[in-house]
Specification:
- The complex is a heterodimer of chains A (about 160) and B (about 625).
- With about 160 residues, chain A is of the alpha+beta class.
- Helices cover about 25% and strands about 20% of the residues of chain A.
- In chain A, strands 1-8 form a two-stranded antiparallel ribbon.
- The longest helix of chain A is centred in the last third of the chain and has 13 residues, at about 140-155.
- In chain B, a hairpin with a 2-residue loop joins strand 16 and strand 17 (about 440).
- The longest helix of chain B is centred in the last third of the chain and has 22 residues, at about 535-555.
- The radius of gyration of chain B is 22 Å and the shape is globular.
Chain lengths: ~160, ~625
């Protein structure tokens, strides 16, 4: 069974523990500026929204890469960057509709979420359950349950 | 490690930015943030200098846990000599600025001198430059942050700035970062303003790479986060209700200073409580509270984000105040509300928003308004003088006075001087609810006796977050003590004071102490930092921090006579509630406190005490 990162922004408090965990996992440094998941703060609405790669099945970044540096992890379904192959041409950053693959100027490569080989550290670090790692076929389960609950409590 | 071991010295007079190594010998004795900043300030300035002169310095300091995964590890402290008190000023703030400063590779910034024109400091990792702030002067903290991000085309910059209150030397102006978070008390923002320093803008992409033992650190911080999550206060109460959970509790305890402390219970407390913030308004069917929010790294998330009623008189036709905004927290809800007898939740949030936007401390502002309202009701101040009718309970008066004070217009200039100066000027110094010139916060020492000693001995003037004995006396953390007695309180106050010094110096939030004791932060510090960080050593750090602050104040000219309370708390008994008939028994606590501190009867640390602490 493959799993997906599932994000519920309503539960996010904006603490950035996910950004710290992601950056430490991939760079060995606690450094939110290198995180592959970003929490956006919408001050006027009072909302915090974590955002990262959705691991498109037919991934634009993978299709666009001219040197075949983006590979599919067949176990997790993650599309990951082979750093040794990446030439830093940035075509993938242009092709991605969501902006979730980004160029890192200091290393001259791109980076994106790789699901931490099936054990995403952001989800582990999240204190509120805003980021979870769930059955990829059932990312709508929580919403379905919420609607089912409404039916369950409706006056008959 | 976990310190960057790097300090930035900014000479505003000369316009220079010079990196220098952090004094690691001092770091081993004072840990970081509050403690280490105070050590630097004590070494570098004459405590007798005029706080608003170029001879004063202002330090922004992170702790070793700032910018790490330790829960709440995002804090920094602003240390300077305070203009409101003339004492050591030390204001701690959360938000995201402190961690960003750490990620940029710095532990601390020392500002000295005075810039000939308005400037802001821009830090991009090791790059540090003073840039012209002519276009920012006169702007609010919110517009300043917005303009700096736009100017550098970088929305990821973190900004700490002063608003108009700091520029205009409102004596309790704060330094505001990340819109809603503030180093709020003691007028640290006025010091920034006196130096023509408008803001500090930081972008840090280096991160924290030098945690001593990362495997151990991850393990122990995860364990301690669980302690916070499993605790009723930090895991449930604070996220759901915020600090405002206290409003009804403290009111029922007969310890809610009301109408300039004439009363200890407020009949309108329920209307300005956490519970009221959750209720749907009749006007628009929405609750005041939108959501909770966390500061950097915080797994508690006590912060309140609220949305005002657009039809409320204070914001009608002012769409800039219709969006989500920080507040209300308990202290502000009390100072703007109960302290003035105002029970209109919406106007409290309006005043709170203006305090954030213009950069001033709502505790001191609200408490000063309380004194103004009492003087108005006595006929000492008139509508003509104030410019508005100002009886207790008037929401219109509060809205009018916050605007005047924020903009330093009319009578607002008097209010901006704080209640000590204002009450002296109008002939009634006894009506100023201050200690060492600073307004005391939301706990009446007649109903919570330990808080009397807390206020009287607080080194930065009256304050609750130097020794929050409310935790013990009301909430039973870590052990329940009787709030109505003085027995045992000197020891309790001293223990809280010293422990707080460690929390503040580590770079984490004091609110963790509802669930954590020193034994919980000790392994986190030990895993992060080089050196010996045993419990014994941490206890010594806390006591050392308290004593060096005390030494600063003694050198500044403070004496035993300043370790006191307003006469109202010592002479006028509480009229209602559990503390009915009681005054604060400071005289029963102070001598014992001096004694267990190892100070003489005049409150001066004895030579052997100083020697034991290495001072």
């Amino acid at each position: 069974m493959q799993k997906s990162l599932h994000i519920d922004p309503i539960k996010c408090t904006g603490c950035l523990q996910c950004e710290m965990a992601c950056s430490y996992e991939h760079t060995g440094v606690i450094n939110p500026s290198k995180s592959r998941i970003k929490v956006f703060s919408f001050e006027h609405e009072g909302r915090k929204v974590p955002y990262t790669c959705t691991q498109c099945a037919d991934a634009w970044c993978m299709q666009a890469c001219p040197v075949d540096a983006i590979k599919l992890d067949t176990v997790t379904g993650a599309k990951f960057v082979v750093e040794a192959t990446c030439v830093g041409c940035k075509v993938c950053t242009i092709s991605c509709p969501f902006g979730t693959i980004n160029y890192m100027a200091d290393v001259g490569k791109v980076q994106k979420c790789d699901l931490c080989s099936g054990d995403p550290k952001c989800a582990q670090a999240c204190p509120t359950g805003a980021i979870t790692y769930v059955d990829a076929d059932w990312t709508g389960l929580d919403k379905m349950r919420a609607w089912a609950s409404r039916a369950n409590t409706a006056v008959l | 490690m976990s310190w960057n071991k790097k300090v930035l010295r900014v000479n505003l007079t000369a316009g220079t930015c010079t990196p220098e190594p952090l004094n690691m010998e001092w770091a081993m004795d004072y840990l970081g943030s509050r403690g280490l900043g105070t050590k630097y300030l004590s070494e570098e300035i004459d405590p007798k200098v005029d706080a608003l002169s170029p001879e004063n310095k202002l330090i922004m300091a992170t702790g070793p846990l700032t910018g790490t995964m330790a829960s709440t590890g995002g804090r920094y402290t602003v240390v300077t000599k305070g203009p409101l008190t003339g004492a050591i000023a030390c204001s701690n703030s959360g938000g995201f600025f402190g961690a960003e400063l750490k990620f940029a590779g710095w532990d601390m910034i020392i500002f000295e001198g005075k810039s000939p024109k308005p400037v802001y400091l821009y830090l991009e990792n090791e790059k540090a430059e003073l840039l012209d702030a002519g276009h920012l002067w006169g702007k609010s903290t919110w517009h300043t942050e917005e303009a700096i991000k736009a100017g550098h085309q970088d929305p990821q910059i973190r900004v700490s700035s002063i608003g108009q209150a700091g520029e205009n030397a409102v004596l309790y102006a704060g330094v505001v970062n990340d819109l809603h978070r503030a180093a709020g008390r003691s007028g640290v923002g006025a010091v920034m303003g006196s130096k023509n320093l408008k803001a500090v803008a930081v972008r840090g992409t280096r991160g924290v790479a030098n945690v001593r033992d990362m495997t151990e650190f991850l393990k122990v911080t995860a364990e301690k986060k669980k302690v916070l999550a499993d605790n009723g206060v930090t895991g449930q109460g604070l996220p759901k209700y915020g600090t405002q959970v206290l409003m009804n509790v403290i009111n029922e305890s007969g310890a809610l200073p009301t109408r300039n402390s004439r009363d200890v219970q407020f009949e309108g407390a329920g209307k300005i409580s956490a519970e009221a913030m959750h209720e749907k308004r009749p006007t628009d069917g929405k609750p005041h509270l939108l959501t909770n929010a966390a500061c950097f790294g915080c797994t508690i998330a006590c912060g309140r984000i609220s949305q005002m009623d657009q039809t409320h008189f204070s914001v009608v036709n002012k769409p800039e105040y219709w969006g989500a905004s920080g507040g209300l927290e308990y202290e502000a809800a009390w100072s703007l509300g109960a302290a003035n007898g105002v029970n209109d939740l919406e106007v409290l949030q309006y005043a709170n928003i203006l305090c954030n936007e213009y950069g001033m401390d709502p505790i001191s502002f609200g408490a000063t308004v309380g004194a103004v309202m009492e003087l108005y009701e006595m006929g000492v101040l008139t509508k003509e003088q104030i410019g508005i009718e100002a009886p207790f309970g008037s929401a219109q008066a509060l809205a009018g006075l916050v605007e005047m004070t924020a903009k330093s217009e009319g009578f607002g200039k008097e209010i901006g001087q704080g209640s000590k100066r204002l009450c002296e000027k109008f002939g009634h110094p006894e009506l100023s609810m201050t200690v060492k010139g600073q307004e005391y916060p939301a706990y009446d020492p007649r109903g919570i006796q330990g808080m009397g000693l807390t206020y009287a001995t607080s080194n930065r003037g009256a304050c609750h977050v130097r020794s929050y004995t409310v935790a013990s006396e009301i909430l039973g953390i870590p052990i329940k003590t009787d709030p109505l007695v003085t027995d045992g309180k000197p020891g309790l106050v001293m223990a809280f004071q010293d422990a707080t010094g460690v929390f503040d110096s580590a770079g984490i939030c004091l609110f963790t102490s509802f669930a954590w004791g020193l034994a919980d932060i000790q392994p986190q510090i030990a895993a992060a930092c080089e050196g010996d960080w045993s419990m014994e050593k941490l206890n010594l750090v806390g006591e050392r921090v308290w004593n060096i602050e005390k030494q600063f104040n003694l050198a500044a000219g403070f004496t035993k006579a300043d370790d006191t309370l307003p006469p109202r708390l010592l002479k006028e008994a509480a009229k209602t509630g559990p503390a009915k008939g009681l005054v604060n028994g400071l005289d029963k606590m102070l001598p014992e406190y001096y004694q267990i501190r190892g100070w003489d009867t005049e409150g001066v640390p004895k030579a052997e005490t100083l020697a034991r602490l290495g001072l």
